[in-house]
Amino acid sequence: MVDFIEDHRDAYGVEPICRVLPIAPATYYEERRRRREPDRRPARQKREELLAREIRRVWEENFGVYGARKLWRQLEREGIGVARCTVERLMRQMGLKGAVRGCKYKVTTVAGEAEKRPADLVERRFQACRPNQLWTKRGQNGDSHRFPHIPPLCGHGARNRVAAAVFPVAGHRDCAFWGDWGLRRLSPNWGGV
Q1: Element (H, E) at 51
Q2: Which of 53, 66, 82, 105 could disulfide-link 62, Cβ–Cβ 3.0 to 4.6 Å?
Q3: Which residues partner with 163 through β-bridges?
Q4: Are the beta carbons of 80 and 54 closer than 8 angstroms?
């Protein structure tokens, strides 16, 4: 923000820009003074600059494979006292990461490109906000019958949850039973689906 104010202060002035931005004029002027006089910077900022140089040095000496924990231990061995969370934060700020063994996740199946995929019956729009709004067909042994798509969340937010259950009923192949008890419990003034 200080750089932005520096760029536009001649056209608009410092105080009008600070009224719009979430920064006090005193903060802007103090930062300018600190840039001109590095001795005015806080002790923590000075120490973290030194620590950042040490962290980068140790990380490069070890071929960039040390993560935060090993790097922190190496700094402790060299007599540089620093908290592990500080090492983690500074490494994040500098974009340094240690080597990761293996992959972060394991791929167990890979779909073949030539495989036949089922048709997209709802065209990726799973937005049913009332019962019987969105239906798909499902085929089983050549037999296809209507089966409802049950949306996990209707509308926006947890107050709009619609509970549903699909189960066989005597005399019907498949029956969808929709209930709005979740809505009534969360919002007593709700009018129903």
Answers
A1: helix 43-61
A2: 66
A3: 179
A4: yes
Length of the chain measured in residues: 193
CB 163 within 8 A of CB 156: no
Burial 95-129 (b: 16+ CB within 10 A, else e): ebebeeeeeeeeeeeeeeeeeeeeeeeeeeeeebe
Which residues are CB-contacts of 19 (< 8 A; sequence separation ≥ 6)?
none
Query: Do 28 and 53 have their domain in common?
Result: no
Distance of CA 138 to the CA centre of its chain: 35
Can you list the pairs that 25-34 forms with residues at least 24 positions away whose Cβ atoms lie under 8 Å? 28/1, 28/2, 31/2, 32/2, 32/6
pLDDT tens string, the chain, 193 residues long: the values are: 899 999 999 999 999 999 999 899 999 999 999 999 999 999 999 999 999 999 999 999 999 999 999 999 999 999 999 999 999 999 999 999 998 887 767 677 777 777 777 777 666 666 767 776 665 554 444 444 444 444 444 444 444 444 444 444 444 444 333 444 443 444 445 444 4
Query: Whole-angstrom Cα distance, residue 164 to residue 18?
Result: 53
> Which residues constitute the domain of residue 91?
42-100
Q: Is 186 helix (H, G, I), strand (E, B) or coil?
A: helix
167 found inside a domain = yes
